[in-house]
């Protein structure tokens, strides 16, 4: 159990949890920066968390839900107010409705996470600031202290798992729901470099090619919300060409971009893609949450070998970035 102390201050309306870990500071930070990792310990064991959004930058937002033993869900959100990369972040933490919007009937609170090196590894101090004594007592009565303690007890196993989150691991795809898939890969390069590689036609046409031998025949890039893009390819024989089109819905360089995507001349609604770039040890964690219209559409797309083609392209992207570094 990594928890060193839990302190409730009824005068200053705070609760502080201090935990020590025998791992380097960057390893502990990455456990909170990576949605694949934080969801393995943020909820208590009987209420595991699923993060559908995790924007670790000032002005960013996280959305998650915890699933109970009977399949019931409790939704929450974070609004990041400050982030000091590798050292601390502050959030407004609150309960949410199913659509991710704040639940105004429940209290929200400020939470500060501070990370520091120690002679034996690293330390996390998590301080929660409550608005009133009544809210503090309400949440303590609801089991906030016990939940935090139980959740924190799961971090050691995550920190020991180096292979699952290594910078040299290939792309992973996780099915989060009947209509959502999360693609994750660490790319060796800074977030700004990875962002540029997605929006500079000169770079894009060198790596976003799928299997070897394919080439671009059209590369119309969108760089701002409201703009549309079109990419088209053909194989080495000039045959089997296809194209994808879409519209950018949200753009916050170099961290987050939301866009639709559909294959040209094919029936079916577009997907909604939410791409996040987060600085982690070893490079940039690229997280792509894809929302499909139906489970059937999700399965049909995955069956095409989409993830294999994405891994080939991302590996090529990494090579391009390292070559120009």
Low-confidence segments: none
Kindly identify the CATH topology of the largest domain. Alpha-D-Glucose-1,6-Bisphosphate, Chain A, domain 4
Order of secondary-structure elements:
EEHHEEEEEEHHHEEHHEEEEEEHH
Tally the helices.
9
Q: Can you tell me the CATH architecture of the largest domain?
A: 2-Layer Sandwich
Please report the total strand number as a whole number: 16
Instruction: Report the portion of residues in β strands.
Output: 35-45%
| CATH class designation of the largest domain | Alpha Beta
- Largest sheet data: 8 strands, antiparallel
The side-by-side strand order for the widest beta sheet comes to: 1-2-8-7-6-5-4-3
Mean pLDDT: 92
Identify the CATH homologous superfamily of the largest domain. Answer: START domain
Distance between the termini: 42 Å
Protein name: ATPase
Family: Belongs to the AHA1 family.
Pfam families: AHSA1 (PF08327)
Domain Activator of Hsp90 ATPase homologue 1/2-like C-terminal: 23-160, 191-320
Commentary on this structure:
Belongs to the AHA1 family. It comes from Nesterenkonia salmonea. This is ATPase. InterPro entries: ASHA1/2-like_C, START-like_dom_sf. Residues 23-160, 191-320 form the Activator of Hsp90 ATPase homologue 1/2-like C-terminal domain. This protein is α+β, with helices and mostly antiparallel strands. It has 2 domains: 3-164, START domain (Alpha-D-Glucose-1,6-Bisphosphate, Chain A, domain 4, 2-Layer Sandwich), CATH 3.30.530.20; 172-324, START domain (Alpha-D-Glucose-1,6-Bisphosphate, Chain A, domain 4, 2-Layer Sandwich). It is built from 9 helices and 16 strands. The chain has helices at residues 25-33, 35-38, 133-141, 144-152, 155-160, 191-199, 201-207, 295-302, 306-324; strands at residues 3-9, 14-21, 49-54, 61-67, 73-84, 88-96, 109-118, 121-129, 172-177, 180-187, 215-220, 228-234, 242-252, 256-263, 271-280, 283-291. The strands form 2 sheets. Strands 1-2-8-7-6-5-4-3 form an 8-stranded antiparallel β-sheet. Strands 9-10-16-15-14-13-12-11 form an 8-stranded antiparallel β-sheet. Helix 6 (191-199) crosses helix 7 (201-207) and helix 7 (201-207) crosses helix 9 (306-324). The mean pLDDT is 92.
């Amino acid at each position: 159990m990594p928890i060193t102390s839990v302190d409730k201050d009824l005068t200053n309306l705070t609760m502080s949890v201090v935990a020590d870990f025998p791992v380097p500071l960057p390893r502990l930070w990455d456990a909170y920066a990576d949605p694949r990792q934080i969801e393995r310990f943020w909820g208590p064991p009987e209420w595991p968390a699923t993060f559908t959004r995790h924007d670790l930058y000032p002005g960013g937002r996280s959305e998650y839900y915890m699933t109970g033993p009977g399949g019931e869900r409790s939704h929450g959100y974070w609004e990041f107010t400050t982030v000091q990369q590798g050292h601390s972040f502050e959030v407004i933490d609150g309960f949410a409705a199913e659509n991710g919007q704040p639940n105004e009937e429940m209290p929200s609170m400020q939470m500060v996470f501070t990370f520091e090196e120690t002679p034996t590894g690293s330390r996390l101090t998590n301080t929660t600031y409550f608005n009133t004594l009544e809210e503090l007592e309400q949440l303590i009565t609801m089991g906030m202290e016990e939940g935090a303690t139980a959740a924190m007890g799961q971090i050691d196993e995550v920190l020991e798992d180096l292979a699952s989150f290594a910078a040299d691991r290939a792309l992973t795809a996780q099915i989060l729901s009947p209509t959502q898939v999360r693609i994750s890969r660490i790319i060796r390069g800074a977030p700004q470099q990875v962002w540029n590689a997605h929006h500079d036609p000169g770079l894009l046409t060198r790596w976003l090619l799928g299997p070897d031998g394919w080439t671009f025949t059209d590369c119309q890039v969108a760089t701002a919300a409201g703009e549309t893009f079109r990419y088209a390819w053909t194989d080495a024989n000039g045959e089997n060409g296809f194209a994808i089109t879409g519209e950018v819905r949200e753009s916050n360089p170099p961290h987050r971009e939301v866009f639709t995507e559909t294959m040209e001349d094919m029936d079916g609604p577009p997907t909604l893609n939410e791409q996040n770039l987060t600085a982690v040890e070893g490079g940039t964690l690229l997280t792509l949450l894809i929302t499909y219209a139906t489970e059937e559409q999700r399965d049909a797309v995955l069956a095409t070998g989409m993830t294999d083609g994405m891994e080939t392209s991302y590996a090529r992207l990494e090579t391009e970035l390292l070559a120009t570094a």
